[in-house]
Design a protein that fits this description.
The complex is a heterodimer of chains A (about 160) and B (about 170).
Chain A (H helix, E strand, L loop, with lengths): L5 E8 L6 E4 L8 E8 L6 E6 L7 E9 L2 E10 L2 E2 L8 E7 L9 E9 L5 E9 L8 E6 L8 E7 L2
Antiparallel strand pairs in A: 1-12, 2-11, 3-8, 3-12, 4-7, 4-11, 5-6, 5-10, 8-9, 9-10
Chain B lengths: L2 E8 L6 E5 L7 E8 L7 E8 L6 E9 L5 E6 L2 E6 L9 E7 L8 E11 L4 E11 L7 E6 L9 E7 L5
Antiparallel strand pairs in B: 1-12, 2-11, 3-8, 3-12, 4-7, 4-11, 5-6, 5-10, 8-9, 9-10
Classes of the chains: A mainly beta (about 160), B mainly beta (about 170).
Chain lengths: ~160, ~170
């Protein structure tokens, strides 16, 4: 039998609303991480992601967005978190792929797909760089106002290399 | 193992649609991978993907990038589209797509995302399509159907369905 390569490390379904969600003490045995977030924010607001509870200016990203009849792209550098360009309420499906997260000799690359097709439809695709050599041991998603509704799910997977 | 192959369908003759039915409820999310080409007398062909054959409750947002253009954005109802090469596209070119369906068995609206690549290298024509989908239906997803808008999928087209479990072992 082939060796499994896509392993669930942790998962949670919110029983009550929460302004943020964190996976901590992440197993360092894998090559990449995949975070799948299916969530419903209570209000329109920004969507954020930090690694290792790091709020310094270490987050750099290029964002391609389809929203309100237009396709556009923008770069955001030296931010204190990974962010989205489009804010909205309603059900979302975000997938974050964090590469070489356990490495201690390189910055971390990230690919994000952000999908939201009901209230203010948008799709967003982002390449990011976390300017730190530290291994990623925690991942936090939070909102710029409002909270994740009950029923929102967050799943973290490890990808073997 | 948290990502499991449920079924693969490889066409041995042309067909206008490919469907998975009676999808097991053993997983949390679904992943569909498509490798396909069409026989329409055209460089490209559109493929529609439906859940439970429902043509009324799907909303999709497309962000497309293509050779020589700035890209485009559009909103459509009732379908998730991908593009595949038609019969006049370069020989041996197939399109590939990956469609992720979250929480398919929960009684809440379903969110989807899709990434696909289309290439017709005889004219340096290529396209990437990125899609956000929202199926405003609380039913369990028990079938997935991919249908060409005209013509057929050619023999050798392959569609695979994977189940993803988020249960930590």
């Amino acid at each position: 039998m082939a060796t499994p390569t896509y392993i669930a490390l942790a998962t949670a379904t919110l029983a009550s609303s929460a302004s943020s969600f964190t996976f901590s003490s992440i197993d360092q045995s894998y090559g990449d991480l995949v975070l799948v977030a299916n969530y419903n924010p209570s209000t329109q607001g920004g969507h954020r992601l930090t690694l290792n509870n790091d709020n310094n200016s270490n987050y750099n990203m290029a964002i391609m967005t389809g929203f309100s009849g237009n396709a556009s792209s923008v770069a955001r550098n030296n931010q204190s978190f990974f962010l989205n360009e489009v804010s909205d309420a309603g059900w979302h499906l975000n997938t974050y792929r964090i590469f070489d997260y356990s490495a201690t000799d390189k910055h971390k690359s990230l690919l994000l797909t952000y999908n939201h097709a009901n209230e203010r439809p948008a799709t967003e695709h982002q390449s990011g760089r976390y300017a730190s050599n530290s291994a990623v041991t925690s991942v936090t998603m939070f909102l710029n106002g409002g909270s994740f509704d009950p029923g929102s799910t967050f799943s973290l997977y490890g990808v073997a290399k | 193992m948290n990502m499991t192959l449920i079924e693969t369908i490889e066409l041995t003759s042309s067909a206008s649609s490919i469907a998975f039915s009676s999808i097991p409820l053993d997983y949390d999310d679904l992943l569909v991978k498509i490798s396909a080409r069409g026989d329409r007398n055209n460089p490209s062909e559109a493929v529609t993907v439906l859940l439970n054959s429902d043509t009324n409750n799907m909303f999709a947002i497309f962000l497309a990038g293509y050779n020589g253009g700035p890209g485009s954005f559009s909103v459509t109802n009732n379908l998730v589209n991908i593009n595949i090469p038609g019969s006049t596209a370069a020989a041996n070119t197939f399109s590939n797509a990956s469609i992720y369906i979250s929480n398919y068995k929960l009684s809440q609206p379903k969110t989807l995302s899709s990434e696909s690549v289309y290439s017709n290298n005889s004219t340096l024509d290529w396209q990437v399509d990125l899609t956000a989908g929202f199926w405003n239906n609380t039913a369990i997803v028990n079938s997935i159907t991919a249908t060409t808008n005209s013509g057929n999928f050619v023999s050798g087209s392959v569609v695979s369905l994977y189940g993803i479990s988020n249960i930590v072992s």
